[in-house]
Amino acid sequence: MRLVLAFAFSAERLAALRLAALVAKAQVKEVTPEDFCRRLGFLANMKGFAGEEISPQAEKEELPREEFVYLAGFDRPGLDRFLAAVQRGKLRHIDLKAMATPVNVQWTPLRLFKELRDEHSYMGKMNKKLLTVHSQQKEEQQ
To answer: What is the pLDDT of residues 82-92, one digit of tens each?
Structure first.
C-alpha cells in the first residue's frame, strides 16, 4: 500500500495533496503534533513497529511549520505519477520530501524534518554555486 504521511499542511494544501495521491493510488495520512515522538515506521503502518514514544522531548521542541511529506510503499512508476500529479495540480511543489528507507523508518518526524531542511539548504547553496560558476564560464567565453 502506498502511503503519504503529511506534516504541517494547511487544509487547502492537504486537500490538493489527497487529489495528487489519488492519481498514484496512494492514501494520505495527516500526522498530528502528538505523533511527532513516534517512529516513522509506526506512523507508516509498517510491520514490526510498536507505537511507543521514543522521543518525549519532541513535545518540548518547536514543531516544524514547514510542510513536508514522507512516502512509503512507492515503486518508481507510482512515485513518478505522484510527483507529476503534484506538479500539475494546485500544489505545484513540495520542497521537503523523503522516501522510506531502512534507516529513516527508525527516525521521528522531527528528526526527518531536520535532515530534510539541512539537505534542502545544502542543495540550494550548491545550486547557487553551480549557477555562479556557469555564468562566470559563459562570461569568460565571450
So the answer is: 999 999 999 99
> In angstroms, rounded to a whole number, what is the distance separating the alpha carbons of residues 44 and 7?
13
Query: Cα separation of 59 and 39, whole Å?
Result: 14
Side chain identity at residue 93, one-letter code:
H
Locus of grid cell 487547502? 12
Question: In Å, what is the CA distance from 83 to each residue of 12, 21, 26, 76, 111?
Answer: 18, 9, 12, 11, 23
120 grid coordinates: 534542502
In contact, 72 and 5? CB cutoff 8 Å:
yes
The alpha carbons of the chain give a radius of gyration, in whole angstroms, of 17
Which pTM was predicted?
0.81
Spans in the chain with pLDDT lower than 50: none
pLDDT value of residue 55: 64
Question: Which grid cell sits at 104?
Answer: 529513516
Cα distance from N-terminal residue to C-terminal residue, the chain? 54
What are the distances in angstroms from CA 46 to CA 34, 89, 102?
19, 29, 11
